[in-house]
Request: fold
Amino acid sequence: MRKQQGETEMNNEAKSELCLALMRADTDAEVVDVLSSSGFWHDSSAWRHLGDIENNYSTIGNQQAEPIAALAEKLVNGIDARLINACLEAGIDPSGNDAPKSIKDAVAKFIGGGAERNGQIVNWSKDKTLSESFLLTVTATGNMPQNGSPSISIADYAEGQTPDAQPETFMSISRSNKLSIPFVQGKYNMGGTGALNFCGNPNRLQLVVSRRNPKLLTSGASQRDHQWGFTVVRREPPVGNQKHSVYTFLAPENINAGRDGSVLAFDADEWPIFPVDDNSTRDAYARFAHHGSLVKLYEYKWKGSRSNIVSSGDGLLRRLDQALPELALPIRIFECRPAYRGHPGSFSNNLTGLSVRLEQDRAENLDDSIENPRRSNIDIDGQRIRARVFVFKKGKAENYRTRRNAVLMVVNGQTHATKSEDFFTRKSVKLGYLADSLLVILDCSDLSGITRDELFMNSRDRVRENEISDRIMDELEDLLKSDPGLRDLQNRRRKAEMEERLSDNQPLADAFRDVLKSDPTLERLFLTGTAISAPFARQGSGEGTGGKFVGKSYPSYWRFKNKTDGEELQRSVHLQSAPRIEFETDVDNSYFDRGDNPDFLEGEWRIFRTDVEPALSLSGCRMDGPRDGIAVLHVSLPPELAVGTKIQVEVEVNDDTQVEPFTNRMTLTIAPASSGGGGGNGQTSAVNRGHGDRGGSSTLALPEVIPVKESGWESRGFNEDSALAIVRTTGEDERDQLDFYINVDNKHLRTAQKNGGKSLDPVLLERQFMYANVLIGMAMLSAEGPRSVTTGDEAESDVEGIEEQISRVTAALSPVILPMVDVLSSLSIEDVVHSDLDAV
Reply:
């Protein structure tokens, strides 16, 4: 039943007090009490369907699967609002031809000149970064850490919205509010609702307070257009025949005017939506703004919510670094919960994105024995994905990534999908000793809109399982596996670790071989046709072992390796292969990826097939490097080529300083398919890279068996229940090299040794435990099947690699391994016969 006119009227002071009370409330229950006292909570006519869609839960409930990704959408909306505000204040139509064409262009145009002209925070001064960060803030308030989750407030000094525009903006779903604006991130008009799913039970409450920038209002604007509007979003449980919940927002004004109600509004020249940067005060709502918006998420839940949000580790600041690795504008983070104590400066800090932190802290954290980051360009149908591989010093990666977020797929600075570090241990990659030290950022910003739509879900936290995502992952697998610098570094790290542990354990391999030979079945399974792989690959020159390469800003030559300028390359390439073509040059390593350096122009490369008319651009190719004067082009050949076909290919490398591009021509003759692969200039490698671990070998090389004592648990991620950890690398002969780390301080082994008395030798028990675990691990590896292809942060984290499966299974079996060996070894035929008779 509709209220009659005047029933919802409150004077200006009462509405402003209600707004402030809602801002200072920090729990679901407190908000319900405030709205109940005002007469709104139980008045169904005062609430309006979010998006004016009765079945809105089908959209809202299908958003981000992870709370940090959902919160990042709120911050992206704040950045969008700031850039739109700046564009409108400059008198430019955000959808017009004069508007910036990208986020970086908008930041460069509106936020400042000088060092900021390339639109990236990494080039800003500290003072500039700090002053800009106060215009977009994130604040934690409320609950003591032991009692639950904090409330999170996001405030921006931006365009804001009029009270009557809020239903069409903040409260809308699937409207085209920003679809035609080229320099904003949020276009789907639904991502901001994903955060509702992580607010506190039972009501999933959110507060919105906003005022339109008076400079953007026309002369005919009403008094209400100048007011601050506010509303609360809540979840209502299903009633009657409803199958799902529904989200509504408070809109109690003007509900008798023949249309849906409007949000509450009040007059105020300014309103305290920002915290103050004062450690003694730590008031979340003490700094006033003349316009802008505040969004408050009550009792927001994420793993690590009990930590100080500006702390390292699971602190919100570091998690948002990963969600927004190349942030367009800085954000100030405030911890305002009174439970936390600390030194001045420990309650506020800047969020600037992972890339900025990596650049600022590179000397302390990145491995300087290798060119860092490793840069490559992946071509997808003529569209470029910039790939950067960061290699951390041992133990330093945990400050910049989690196990689940080791591969980031980024668009305009925002992570859209992730892969876990299991990606690096796949059989098709085999970088087990570097898995906890790698971070890959795939910048997909240059993909076309339609390609991004095909690749990413609308929720922007996972990828679709399709040909495009398969191709990208295949290229990344090959990029990592074929990188000689990564292989060399892995070999050096493995050697260092093995030398620490294997000084007196070499007899283990020979002893284990004798154990296998003692049983025909074990010998047939694990020994036939195998030999123990060389523990280390051949030592090459490696990176960082010779004189440091110093490249020029722009190339003076770009030619085939070991060829003169302009000399053509003649090469036979196998059918169904991906030829690798090496070039030599004198340009520095960042030539194709200078997005973080505004002082130098960026190079570009293109590859064409010229024996057809018109010339055909070859897609699916990848350029690795250049790295210290060498670049490697991986050529994707058209699948329809027949044996004996000769094709002419041109590779162009150019930048705006060159009068003419560097053009290198080659003739490729298609030879029959070969299972062989390899590297070197123009040699080929198998094109079927596949996803992850597809199939296993019928035989396995004997592993290195390395005992680990309690003092070494941390390096292998062990605890008292752990039994076995496997690291897989590539040996000298390109076969899998397996290292089996056995926890010889496992509590069940130590208990058996303690209780065995004189009858059971502790050394024998230890060897039985070790060999039993190795056999289990080898059996699981030999039965290894295809790895499921999954998408998204949640999905990827739920899929175990074979190494993780083996660790979990052997830990579960460790209590029964030694008792089982003891009982079964003492079992006689008489025991079996008597047992069977008793059963009858």
